[in-house]
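Ticket #4471: structure export looks truncated?
Reporter: QA, pipeline team
Priority: medium

Steps to reproduce: submit the single chain below to the structure queue and open the exported record.
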Amino acid sequence: MSKRNYWLMKSEPDAYSIDDLERDGVEPWDGIRNYQARNFMKDEMETGDGILFYHSNVRPPVIVGSMEVASEPYPDPTQFDPDSKYFDEKSSEEDPTWELVDVKFVQKFENPVTRDAIKEEPSLQDMVILNRYRLSITPVTEEEWLKIHEMAGAEPK
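Actual output as written to the record:
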């Protein structure tokens, strides 16, 4: 069995929230239009990897639960849909630019972990989410994964 990787994925809750994922169960994580974030999904994520669900563009920004990678990467269908805000006229079905993975709901935290709480925790000072890069998908270490769950009062699943 390969070593499990961990990630943090951002979504604005008015676009797609942890409650939406809990309702849906499994959902494609579409609309990523940053090459580095796409490459994480395409080249590094594996089925079963753990993901922290981060609500962004809210006050305060907060980690609200966890999910897991539920599929191998595949072309994001929104890139081919002219009616989608994620349409990419330069992409083709023969040579797609954008990839995605499906994610599966795991748990919602009873005690969400705010960005401020992360900043105040000495062991989390190196979390990528705290640096100046504002990627929608970032890697998380196993130690960070465990500490966030501890702070949320949640057992990692």
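Status: closed, not a bug. The export was complete when the record was re-opened. Leaving a note from the reviewer for reference: The chain has four helices and eight strands.
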